[in-house]
Amino acid sequence: MLGEAPLRSKGTLNEMLTAGAAYDGGWWAKILSVHQNEIFGMPWNFGQFESVSLQATVYVLDKLAKIPMTYRGNPIAITRMLSALVNSLDDNGILTGRWDGEYSDGISPTKWNGSVAILQKYMETKQPVEYGQCWVFSGVMTTVCRALGIPTRSVTNFASAHDTDGSLTIDMHWDENGEHMSELDTDSVWNFHVWNECWMTRPDLQKGYGGWQAVDATPQETSEARGSTVDREDITHAYKYDEGSTMERAAVWRASHFSTKPDVYTEEDSVEDVFFSIKDFEEVYFGSSFEIPIEIRNTSDECRTISLTVTLLSVYYTGVRKSKLLHKVFNQQLSPHCSKFTPVY
């Protein structure tokens, strides 16, 4: 399964299989969450060497998926099937997802800290365990894949866009008064999302496509130090070119030609000489006040009258809007080739 010599070596393979330091008889790692500017890791005990991990994995493959023995040696087919079996959406799998905050009839996703307890409960009842969210699905997916010997890791993506119509845009709708028309929205941006990568060769594809393969077990349509092995690794470069680079812009332009809005990134003839940008601000703590610095730039040779509508909404990490916190309209004059910061409190 691993063609390159370094990946076959015992030390590298062991590290890929465990991705954590031994602690209290388990194998630990950290799953990242919250926000790209406020990252912290939640310890997660994958427990792939516990007997229940392999038992549960074989059970769902035998009883739910009924995968023929001839496919059991194919990691491509196995990981695709396991990504469906980890959730209960359409096959009575291991975990039920829930995002509405009502967990009284089960266990809150934030209470789990490892896969073993989930798999034990599932094997006891043979019913989906309640409840999980993306990092819980990913943790269990890591466990069941590793239990079969498939090198697997959890991957966290921040500001994770969910484009439902293949337009390569995230569309939000507002009326002329700055009121959010949520009933028209189908796209969303999650503060973070956690999926998995499994290492394997891809003999079904052209040369060069082997290595880490992305799989996602989340049904999205809806401490003490452990050592350096649980430090986070930035793998953004493995997914896309550097933001704003020529190669990144070219990749977006090419992809847009196959989207439902092929002209969305094509340069238009209309003149745009007033630009708005929201500057990064420092960490905001619960209960504390903060301001949002908005920069307005007039790049034209004439004075411009600016009308700026600002609406501030609170959202869940899944991008679902909860309530409106602020709505303000700013009207001001901006001289040629000038910029101005408008702080919003």
UniProtKB/TrEMBL annotation:
Domain Transglutaminase-like: 126-219
TM stretches of this protein: none
SMART domains assigned: TGc
Database matches in InterPro entries: Ig-like_fold (IPR013783), Papain-like_cys_pep_sf (IPR038765), Transglutaminase (IPR050779), Transglutaminase-like (IPR002931), Transglutaminase-like_sf (IPR036985), Transglutaminase_AS (IPR013808), Transglutaminase_C (IPR008958), Transglutaminase_C_sf (IPR036238)
Top-level division of the source organism's lineage: Eukaryota
Protein name stated in the entry: F13A1
Pfam families: Transglut_C (PF00927), Transglut_core (PF01841)
PANTHER family the record matches: HEMOCYTE PROTEIN-GLUTAMINE GAMMA-GLUTAMYLTRANSFERASE-LIKE PROTEIN, PROTEIN-GLUTAMINE GAMMA-GLUTAMYLTRANSFERASE
GO molecular function, one term: protein-glutamine gamma-glutamyltransferase activity
Gene3D superfamilies tied to this protein: Immunoglobulins, Transglutaminase-like
